[in-house]
Amino acid sequence: xxxxxxxxxxxxxxxxxxxxxxxxxxxxxxxxxxxxxxxxxxxxxxxxxxxxxxxxxxxxxxxxxxxxxxxxxxxxxxxxxxxxxxxxxxxxxxxxxxxxxxxxxxxxxxxxxxxxxxxxxxxxxxxxxxxxxxxxxxxxxxxxxxxxxxxxxxxxxxxxxxxxxxxxxxxxxxxxxxxxxxxxxxxxxxxxxxxxxxxxxxxxxxxxxxxxxxxxxxxxxxxxxxxxxxxxxxxxxxxxxxxx
Length: 244
What we know:
The protein is an alpha+beta fold. It has two domains: about 1-130, Serine Threonine Protein Phosphatase 5, Tetratricopeptide repeat (Alpha Horseshoe); about 140-240, Lipocalin, CATH 2.40.128.120. It has eight helices and eight strands, in the order ααααααααββββββββ. The chain has helices at about 1-15, 30-35, 40-60, 65-75, 80-95, 95-110, 115-130, 140; strands at about 145-155, 160-170, 175-180, 185-190, 195-205, 205-220, 220-225, 235-240. An eight-stranded antiparallel beta sheet has the order 3-2-1-8-7-6-5-4, with no helix packed on it. α6 runs antiparallel to α7. The relative contact order is 0.09.
């Protein structure tokens, strides 16, 4: 581990020796280049210490802590291409895509021709591609669930189709619901981690059953799962698709 950290420090040091090169001439990062070029020996040593700590945390998979170390180091030496790349990699793993993209842009511009510069370019190209559903976080999915959904419920004794509308979903995943066709009342709808849970009260003959549906969002327009009318009843299935 220490040998790898020393290698990181050596690479970072070599990068600083080239601070006057063409990569530093990027207009949008000229101010960062000037700040890094003006570092005192003491400041440069402190920045390297912080980068080494961040690199070690990155190797250990602790990106929450690594971003703190890299962030503090980059306040001193903001144009370090290696630190910007590894900072960006951790930001991406924490789903902070916009912040990660900026770190990668800095690394690619200020570390042109270096290993991390090429890796940053590749990361930027990957970020530019359309994202698949599995890569989306809850905060990106929630607004896309707003609209009208058709729910099909199937048990051995029969089936039914109902509709409901999601008007909004707050940061906790709880939705504001407007109903149309449900034979009863939809009490609650909660979405979290692509898991879906909703509770309804359904009038069955002379009694009212509280039914808990559980399932999973399988795409931005489809979800499915299971439910029971009562604790001792058979397990039934439900599917839903977004129709508006």
